[in-house]
Amino acid sequence: MESQALQELVRRIFGDEKTRAQFTSNPDSVLARFTLTEQEKRAVLSTHARLGLVTSDSPQLEAAIEPTIFWHAPIP
Amino acid sequence: MLQERQAKLLREEIEALLAPLSDFAGLYDLVKEPLIRARRGLAIDAAHDRLWPLLPLMVCEAISGNYEHALPAAAAIQLLKGAAEVFDDIEDADSSDSLLTRYGLAAATNTATTLLVLAEKAIARLKGRGVADSTIVRVVDEVNSYYATACAGQYLDLSLAAGITISEDTYLRVAAMKSASQVECACCIGALLATTEQQFISLFSTFGRNLGMASQVANDIQGITGGSDIMNRRITLPVIYALDQTDGQARSELEAAFRRQCEAAPDPAQIRDLLFGVGAIHYAMIKTEFYKQRARDVLSEAEAAGASVERLKLFLE
User: Fold this and answer.
1) Apex CA B147: angle with CA B142 and CA B152, to 5°?
2) How many whole angstroms separate alpha carbon B256 and alpha carbon B263?
3) What would the pLDDT profile of B148-206 be if each residue is shown by its tens digit?
4) How many A-B residue pairs are in contact by the CB < 8 A criterion?
5) Which domain holds residue A31?
6) Residue A15 lies in a domain
7) CATH fold of B165-317
8) Assigned CATH topology for domain B1-131
9) Using CA atoms, how far apart are residues A60 and A46, in angstroms rounded to an integer?
10) Per-residue model confidence as pLDDT tens digits over B75-96
11) Mutation to test the A interface, candidates B89, B92, B97, B222, most A Cβ within 10 Å
């Protein structure tokens, strides 16, 4: 089942300057306003700690996803 | 190093299966081609890329401490993956470097069929490794069940391809059936060859399913950053999120870019920027991490039950 709360969280962070600023300075305070599962919260915080807000391609993003694409052979 | 020994033994197992084809050099080369690509059983890759073909062996070893008797099953998974990729290229016809493009439909179909038959032969070789007949029958049944699910997922994917409005739930269901089921199969088979305890078989199957989902969504991200999924108008998770969360001009641009009937080629840089801007790539990254968190939790449970999961954590870095 898709998580409406997770979608809404990301929509607010990327669509509302105030929420974005709050999330950047204190992610937990923003997460508390959304009904997320524990695993979703950990996923949000872990992504933020590793990459911040993902707003453009970067070597960090590639480094984060590359090892996970183990199942798929590189696109010729 | 243990991984290098496992990779060497797996290569030897696959080579032994291909040996009867060596009299037919052309076919031998064609069949070998999907197996020597990066992240495949005959590839000589970087350390991390070498890991995945070993997944069934690593699961088997995590539970029982042994893995050599599982080598034919790991080879079968590689052959099945090779067959699936060639069939996928035939169905999608969107790669400029596929067997289909270079050798034609007949040769590509024959290659994929040969890989399938060799996978069946690989499983039969479990007998020579001392695996009980009842376990071999169960391995055959599980492999066929998982790959029947993958075929059903591919059917759903093909039937959805013409539309632009796909819900996230539908997309994730197709990804679970078509892609994650194959990783789940690799882990399930590794566990089946290690134990009869259903608890471990279920835990490692769940680990594989979540690992497969994380891999699929990460692949979706790379399809956007690299531009290939934009050029091929392939609707994946970031696009579904963006279509759901945008309106006005941004949504119109996305619809035009991903509608297959639209004649104008999409601009990858423009669409990529749009997807980053609305948080679609960030959202997909969180989903990737979400599935990895789930896989980590399952590994912790297996560890508490007595499995040695340290090496499997390498897949979750």
Assistant:
1) 130
2) 9
3) 999 999 899 888 877 778 899 999 999 999 999 999 999 999 999 999 999 999 999 99
4) 129
5) 4-68
6) yes
7) Farnesyl Diphosphate Synthase (1.10.600)
8) Farnesyl Diphosphate Synthase (1.10.600)
9) 14
10) 999 999 999 999 988 988 777 8
11) B222
